[in-house]
């Protein structure tokens, strides 16, 4: 089984060909291709983690759609002062499909 650990939006994701991965928002239209930097590559029994060996490796993904994450509600309250504040947040996300892992 071939898979790779890639850096995506400040996080590390384990991906293999055909996986759908949700990342932080990536610029571009649906259907465009992006390349993700490889941190580790596993090809059956062989594991590569050396940055020099991984300089030529790349993971290609196709942008599927832009979407938004679940709403997170932030509430602040201080007792006896009448202070209360409510705020919401929804992350801007992109869903991509991994199309190729080249060693």
TrEMBL record:
GO terms for molecular function: rRNA binding; structural constituent of ribosome. GO terms for cellular component: cytoplasm; ribonucleoprotein complex; ribosome. The keyword Hydrolase does not apply. One of its GO terms (biological process) is translation. Keywords: Ribonucleoprotein, Ribosomal protein, RNA-binding, rRNA-binding. It comes from the Bacteria. InterPro entries: bL21-like, bL21-like_sf, Ribosomal_bL21. Pfam families: Ribosomal_L21p. Belongs to the bacterial ribosomal protein bL21 family. This protein binds to 23S rRNA in the presence of protein L20. Part of the 50S ribosomal subunit. Contacts protein L20. This is Large ribosomal subunit protein bL21. It comes from Rothia kristinae.
């Amino acid at each position: 089984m071939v898979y790779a650990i890639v850096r995506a939006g400040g996080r590390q994701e384990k991906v293999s060909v055909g996986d759908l991965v949700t990342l932080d928002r990536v610029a571009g239209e649906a259907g465009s291709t992006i390349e993700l930097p490889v941190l580790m590559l596993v090809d059956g029994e062989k594991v590569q983690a050396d940055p020099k060996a991984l300089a030529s490796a790349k993971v290609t993904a196709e942008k599927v759609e832009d979407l938004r994450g679940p709403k997170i509600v932030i509430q602040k309250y201080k007792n006896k002062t009448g202070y209360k504040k409510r705020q919401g947040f929804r992350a801007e996300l992109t869903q991509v499909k991994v199309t190729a892992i080249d060693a």
